[in-house]
């Protein structure tokens, strides 16, 4: 029978992490599912994720590691599909994995294994996959959702938006889900780049000369802080600590960096007492990369031997090293963002099923929803969990 003649149970738009998980879950329940992507291949972000090894989940997944206008929204889905559930799937497919750091789980081999797993599960669940053509129009009539693609009308009783957000447009990322959501009267929380490097202005040129230097720091923005590596780039600041804080950061506000997060109070004065002839930059270089120590000493205006500097000045330097202010003038934007924060407003969706409460049959999952995880496998765990929740409910 012609696909157009008999409506599907569900059309899932977007063959990324969330869309594939949703499609295979619904397919396993015996539903007729059509999975559509405008790209030539499924799971393109999975393939490049985690440096090609896909950081597919995080053992410390908890709702407080997600940003959303409603911090409670992710609880139900994350509680019902856990990192262990995904791990069970991984192990059933014989995929070797390891914990890198901070609960982050990666494939030993390649991210390709995750895409192959999802595709195999979709195939076994009878999911039909259509790749390579943009969706021209979406409409709702006669109790069905109609998707026009390549001149053909495809119909289903349910439609799942799983087309992600606009981060990394060169990988086919779009804001399509927001357009469809708005078409159906759903509100969208202003999308913004997240997990994204900061840019610094010309006044910070001294730091830009450190491009390539990395060190462990504790970065603060208001009450939020992360302790991880920071990396100086020719445009500004990157590395896990900066990417994490960027998701919280608001324009025209400063961030503060603790360059000596393990140092005890009074450490510089103590150094002076022990080694009065030690040079400031040498002392700093005992815990920091030498080039960074030099720039910090220069900025602090502290040159020469410790013994020649008053305790008061050393205490002031300590305080500044513990709260070094940077005023980013922006970020590298969607072109370099790992994810999009904001998105389809959670107040429009059921947290149990991901269905739009005002538009029965319309679902939204994954990154297109206003739920954004920390760096470290949290975003894929949200994709799996929200995809599974919708796949169970369709
Ligand atoms: P996703 O973006 O994966 O999929 C959306 C799909 O919809 C795509 O296949 C796209 O082609 C398709 N689409 C878009 N517009 C369409 C349209 N108009 N019509 C039809 N199809 C359309 N997360 C993590 O947890 N661990 C990690 O290691 C990484 N690493 C990482 C590296 C890099 C470089 C990036 C950019 C991102 C990550 N992430 C990550 C984030 C992670 O990739 C992201 O959160 C998930 O892929 C989101 O899954 P979704 O299925 O929601 O969207």
TrEMBL record:
<keyword id="KW-0274">FAD</keyword>
<feature type="domain" description="RsdA/BaiN/AoA(So)-like Rossmann fold-like">
    <location>
        <begin position="9"/>
        <end position="392"/>
    </location>
</feature>
<feature type="domain" description="RsdA/BaiN/AoA(So)-like insert">
    <location>
        <begin position="192"/>
        <end position="339"/>
    </location>
</feature>
<dbReference type="InterPro" id="IPR004792">
    <property type="entry name" value="BaiN-like"/>
</dbReference>
<keyword id="KW-0285">Flavoprotein</keyword>
<dbReference type="Pfam" id="PF03486">
    <property type="entry name" value="HI0933_like"/>
</dbReference>
<dbReference type="InterPro" id="IPR057661">
    <property type="entry name" value="RsdA/BaiN/AoA(So)_Rossmann"/>
</dbReference>
<dbReference type="InterPro" id="IPR023166">
    <property type="entry name" value="BaiN-like_dom_sf"/>
</dbReference>
<dbReference type="Pfam" id="PF22780">
    <property type="entry name" value="HI0933_like_1st"/>
</dbReference>
<protein>
    <submittedName>
        <fullName>NAD(P)/FAD-dependent oxidoreductase</fullName>
    </submittedName>
</protein>
<dbReference type="InterPro" id="IPR055178">
    <property type="entry name" value="RsdA/BaiN/AoA(So)-like_dom"/>
</dbReference>
<dbReference type="InterPro" id="IPR036188">
    <property type="entry name" value="FAD/NAD-bd_sf"/>
</dbReference>
């Amino acid at each position: 029978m012609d696909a157009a003649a008999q409506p599907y149970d569900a059309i899932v738009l977007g063959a990324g992490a969330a869309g594939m998980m949703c499609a295979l879950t619904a397919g396993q329940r015996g539903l007729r599912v059509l999975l559509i992507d405008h790209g030539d291949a499924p799971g393109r972000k999975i393939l490049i994720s985690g440096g090609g090894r896909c950081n597919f989940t995080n053992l410390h997944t908890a709702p407080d590691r997600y940003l959303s206008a409603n911090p409670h929204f992710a609880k139900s889905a994350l509680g019902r599909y856990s990192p262990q559930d995904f791990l069970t799937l991984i192990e059933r497919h014989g995929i070797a994995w390891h914990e890198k750091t901070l609960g982050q789980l990666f494939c030993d081999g390649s991210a390709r294994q995750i895409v192959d797993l999802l595709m195999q599960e979709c195939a076994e669940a009878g999911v039909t996959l259509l790749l390579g053509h943009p969706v021209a129009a979406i409409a709702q009539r006669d109790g069905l959702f109609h998707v026009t693609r390549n001149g053909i009308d495809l119909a289903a009783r349910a439609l799942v938006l799983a087309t992600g957000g606009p981060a990394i447009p060169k990988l086919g990322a779009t804001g399509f889900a927001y357009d469809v959501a708005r078409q159906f009267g759903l509100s969208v929380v202003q999308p913004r780049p997240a997990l994204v490097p900061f840019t610094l202005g010309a006044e910070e040129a001294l730091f830009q000369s450190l491009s390539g230097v990395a060190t462990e720091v504790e970065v603060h923005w208001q009450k939020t802080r992360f302790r991880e590596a920071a990396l100086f780039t020719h445009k500004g600041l990157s590395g896990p600590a900066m990417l994490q804080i960027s998701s919280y950061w608001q324009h025209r506000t400063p961030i503060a960096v603790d360059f000596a997060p393990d140092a005890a109070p009074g450490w510089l004065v103590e150094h002076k007492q022990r080694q009065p002839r030690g040079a400031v930059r040498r002392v700093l270089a005992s815990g920091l990369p030498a080039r960074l120590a030099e720039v910090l000493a220069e900025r602090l205006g502290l040159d020469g031997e410790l013994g020649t500097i008053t305790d008061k000045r050393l205490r002031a330097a300590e305080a500044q090293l513990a709260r070094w202010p940077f005023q980013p003038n922006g970020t590298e934007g969607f072109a370099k963002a790992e994810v999009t924060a904001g998105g389809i407003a959670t107040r429009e969706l059921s947290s149990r099923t991901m269905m739009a409460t005002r538009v029965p049959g319309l679902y939204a999952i994954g990154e297109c929803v206003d739920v954004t995880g920390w760096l470290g496998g949290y975003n894929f765990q949200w994709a799996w969990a929200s995809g599974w929740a919708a796949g169970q409910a369709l």
